[in-house]
Structures are given as structure tokens and as C-alpha cells.
Amino acid sequence: MSADVRWDVVTGDLTRCATDAIVNAANSSLLGGGGVDGAIHRAAGPRLLAECRTLGGCPTGEARITAGYQLAARHVIHTVGPVWQGGGNGEARLLASCYTASLTLALDHGLRTIAFPAISTGIYGYPKQAAAAVAADAVNQLLLEEPGGFDDIFFVCFDEASAAIYADAVQAVRSS
Ligand code: APR
């Protein structure tokens, strides 16, 4: 865990984050949906969908970047989390890959502040405790490889209960 990055868990609306990038929990079409995907597209306006149409979709575990348009964030990094199927279908590896791919894309574009939702824990049904542990470990591993790569990383949860779960998971890796 590199000391010079601020890594916080907050409760709030991801669409209001004025970071260099917010991460969208998208589906493989990248053509919008419900949950945080729907909220991001509503807040960004129709030009976001227009740009997403040019990307040709995104496989689970990978990430694509667009502008943020009417969002406070400059960019949206769209990633596709795994649908929870009981844990025996590589869900943990694919979820970790969402965080690693999103952070790597941010690094490639020189973005230093980034905010994540609780990827896959809504419509995709990933149990929150398990998802939080995977997310915290993946981010921590990337930070060990890229010390100084980021100024701020936020996990933005939509409710206090989720924020407590993600805060515990982050604390666990920070103290390890
Ligand atoms: N800000 C922060 N978090 C939010 C917001 C928001 N505005 N809206 C929802 N969330 C939270 C949910 O409470 C959940 O904890 O984001 C987390 C992820 O939930 P979903 O948005 O349902 O995403 P996911 O579970 O990854 O499912 C993706 O849902 O919206 C569709 O197109 C999307 O098919 C894809 C699927």
C-alpha cells in the first residue's frame, strides 16, 4: 500500500464525483442499462451513448474509456463485472480484473483521481463482502506495483451498509 495515495470509502452518488474518472459498472454492450450505468448515462447526456456506440462493446473483466460529457468527471471508464453464478465460474478473477483494467487504463491516460462503484454487487448479484474483498485486494496489488500512480482512489457506495463493508475490506488490506 503506497503511502502517498488517498484511498477512501464514501457513501454517495458516483455521478457527482468530480474525479478525473468515474468507473461505470456496465454491461458488455456498453449501451446503457439500469443501476449506476443508467444513472451515469442520464447525468452524462446522450453524447456518452453516442461515443459508447463507437466502441463495439466490452468483454467481462475489461475496461474502455470515454469522455464524461455533462458529468463532473472528465472521463468515464466503463468496465463489465461478472454476473454472480455461485463463485465457481471465475467470478473473483473477472471482478479483480475490472479493477486492475480500470486502474491501468487510468494510468495509461495520466488520470490521477478515480472513483469506483461497488461493481457487480447490484443487478449482477455478487455478494457484497466477497466483492469488497476482491476489490480491495485488486486495488492494493495495483498500488504496490504502481506506487505514486494515483493521488485519490474512492470506493463510492450508494448506502451506508455497503460503505461499511467496503471500508472494512480496505482496512483489512491496508493493515496486512
Ligand atoms: N452511485 C453509486 N453507486 C450506485 C449508484 C450511484 N448513482 N447507483 C447504483 N449504485 C450501486 C448499487 O447499489 C450497487 O451497489 O452500484 C452497485 C452496482 O450495482 P449495479 O449498478 O446494478 O451494477 P452491477 O451489479 O455491476 O450490474 C451491472 O446492471 O445497470 C446494469 O447495464 C448494467 O447490465 C449491467 C448491470
N- and C-termini, Cα separation: 9 Å
Full CATH superfamily name: Leucine Aminopeptidase, subunit E, domain 1
Structurally, how many domains make up the residues?
Answer: 1
Rg from Cα: 15 Å
How would the global form be characterised? globular
Instruction: Specify the CATH architecture.
Output: 3-Layer(aba) Sandwich
Top-tier CATH class: Alpha Beta
- Assign the structural class, choosing from mainly alpha, mainly beta, alpha/beta, alpha+beta, or little secondary structure: alpha/beta
Largest sheet: 6 strands, mixed
CATH topology: Leucine Aminopeptidase, subunit E, domain 1
Percent helix, as a range, is 25-40%
Q: Which compounds are bound in this model?
A: adenosine-5-diphosphoribose
Overall mean confidence score, pLDDT = 97
Itemize the secondary structure elements and their pairings.
Elements: E1 6-11, E2 21-26, H1 35-44, H2 46-53, E3 63-67, E4 75-80, H3 91-108, E5 113-116, H4 128-145, E6 152-157, H5 160-174
Parallel strand pairs: 1-6, 2-4, 2-5, 5-6
Antiparallel strand pairs: 3-4
The structure holds adenosine-5-diphosphoribose.
Question: What are the salient characteristics of this protein?
Answer:
176 residues, Leucine Aminopeptidase, subunit E, domain 1, globular
What does this structure look like?
This protein is of the alpha/beta class. The protein has helices spanning 35-44, 46-53, 91-108, 128-145, 160-174; strands spanning 6-11, 21-26, 63-67, 75-80, 113-116, 152-157. It has a six-stranded mixed beta sheet with strand order 1-6-5-2-4-3, sandwiched between helices. Helix 3 (91-108) crosses helix 4 and helix 4 (128-145) crosses helix 5 (160-174). The model has no long low-confidence stretch (mean pLDDT 97). Residues 13-15, 25-27, 33-39, 81, 117-124, 156, 158, 162 line the site of adenosine-5-diphosphoribose.
